[in-house]
Design goal:
alpha/beta, Fumarate Reductase Iron-sulfur Protein, Chain B, domain 2, globular, 433 residues, disordered N terminus, Glutathione S-transferase Yfyf (Class Pi), Chain A, domain 2, five-stranded mixed beta sheet, 51% helix, 9 strands
Length: 433
């Protein structure tokens, strides 16, 4: 490829910004916080190494090769390096830009491109198709077919399909889609008017978590609105380099909530929350939505962040359970929220928290990472479960649906089949006695 072609690629609008690349001083303090570097010990699979490669592409000294793509895609985008970085490098923005840059400038095999277009362009934004997929998943599980397939061992003849199938989430009927558009009154005195963004896949696989979230908010004096026009937040699209798709979803969510005079806009998914809070970055060049995105960001909070900021109602009866808490990457590293989930757990009578070692090191979930890079994800999960098991806790608690799926698989494979709950579900159980 000619130097002029490389320069043209480097100047592409979605490429990492030079000002962000320049913040990295290559000190290496990020290395030990990087899950892939800890596993492989390969410099090019560390944050510092990946930034070096981005710089080479940005300066026109290297092309977007298969090797470059491999190193960028093997990153979990967990942002653990951001917590370790003394220079304030926004690595999350860099890796997302690098992937968007790749997506703009390579031609994928037709079947891969077709699948990406369907999943990111159609499926995740369609309640009908998600419901259809959820119904199929429910039949597969409820009919006993899943149990039969697993017990037969047939999937072991298809590479890593056995491990990937273990990560299939449950389909929880009735789906939460039926609650979208409704308003739930506060219990007792109304203290807040809140909007709840229910997600996309969560409406199928975490319908009970969404219901628990509504109940907890009602208990704490919130009038809960589930905006009718909401859609997928776009987090999976951003991580996959599909920024244009994410921008359209972002604009729709802004329009669905911003004029509702809400005190706060909430999510119970840490991964979604990071993207929702960064709509201003997605839409910084959109004159019609630049100011709107900033106003949206000012009201956007994770459910733990919100509950940790108010005086929550103390449950009447103790739960009497020992839990350990797994820090969801996009909550602790992306949103810098660590104290609030622990504060909520501490407010529940009878709950004893036993901290695990390396609680903020990625469990390997990372959106769809555990499917497309299953071997690495399962290795990280094994390490995580060693930390979990060492606590002796009877229950694993976290703050992100993706982590819950991963940890549920880990508890079955490497643990004692401990239940995995969201912080909100623990509080809901306490309220319900």
């Amino acid at each position: 490829m000619a130097a002029s072609d490389l320069t043209q690629i480097a100047n592409n609008s979605e490429a990492p910004h030079q000002k962000d690349l320049d913040k990295c001083v290559h000190c290496g303090l990020c290395l030990n916080s990087c899950p892939t570097y800890r596993e492989l010990g390969v410099e090019m699979d560390s944050p510092r190494g990946r930034i070096y490669q981005m710089v080479q592409v940005a300066e026109g000294k290297a092309e977007i090769s298969d090797t470059y793509i491999e190193h960028m895609e093997l990153c979990l985008a967990c942002r653990g390096c951001e917590s370790a970085c003394p220079s304030g490098v926004n690595y999350g923005r860099l890796i997302e830009a690098a992937r968007a840059h790749i997506d703009q400038n390579i031609k994928r095999p037709w079947h891969v491109q077709f699948a990406r277009n369907f999943v990111f362009g159609t499926l995740l934004s369609s309640r009908f198709l998600l419901s259809l997929a959820g119904a199929g998943l429910f039949l597969y599980q409820a009919s006993g077919l899943q149990k039969l397939v697993r017990s037969s061992g047939v999937l072991k003849f298809f590479g890593r399909l056995h491990e990937i199938e273990m990560l299939a989430p449950s389909a929880e009927t009735p789906f939460f889609f039926s609650q979208i558009g409704k308003v739930f009154p506060a219990e007792g005195e109304k203290r807040y008017k809140v909007a709840f963004l229910a997600g996309c896949i969560a409406n199928i696989s975490f319908a009970r978590l969404n219901e628990a979230t509504v109940r907890v908010l009602q208990k704490n004096g919130c009038e809960v609105h589930i905006p009718e026009a909401q859609n997928c937040c776009g987090a999976l699209h951003v991580h996959a380099g599909r920024k244009d798709d994410a921008r359209e979803l972002a604009k729709n969510n802004i329009d669905a909530t911003l004029d509702g005079d809400f005190d706060v806009i909430l999510t119970n998914a840490a991964g979604c929350g990071s993207t929702l809070k960064e709509y201003d970055e997605l839409l910084e060049h959109d004159d019609a939505y630049r100011d709107k995105s900033l106003a949206f960001k000012a009201k956007m909070k994770d459910i733990n962040e919100f509950l940790g900021s108010i005086e929550i109602r103390t449950p009447a009866k103790p739960l009497n359970m020992t839990v350990t808490y797994q820090d969801s990457c996009h909550l602790c590293h992306g949103q810098k929220i660590r104290v609030q989930p622990r504060k909520v757990l501490a407010a529940i009578p009878g709950v004893t928290l036993k901290e695990m070692a390396l609680s903020d090191l990625c469990c390997g979930s990372a959106g769809i990472y555990n499917v497309v890079h299953n071997e690495m994800a399962m290795s990280l999960l094994k390490n995580k479960m060693q930390s979990v098991n060492a606590t002796g806790a009877e229950c694993i608690v976290t703050a992100n649906p993706g982590c819950m799926i991963q940890l549920q698989a880990g508890a079955k494979i490497h643990g004692k089949d401990q239940p995995v709950l969201h912080v909100v579900e623990v509080l809901d159980r306490a309220y319900r006695g």
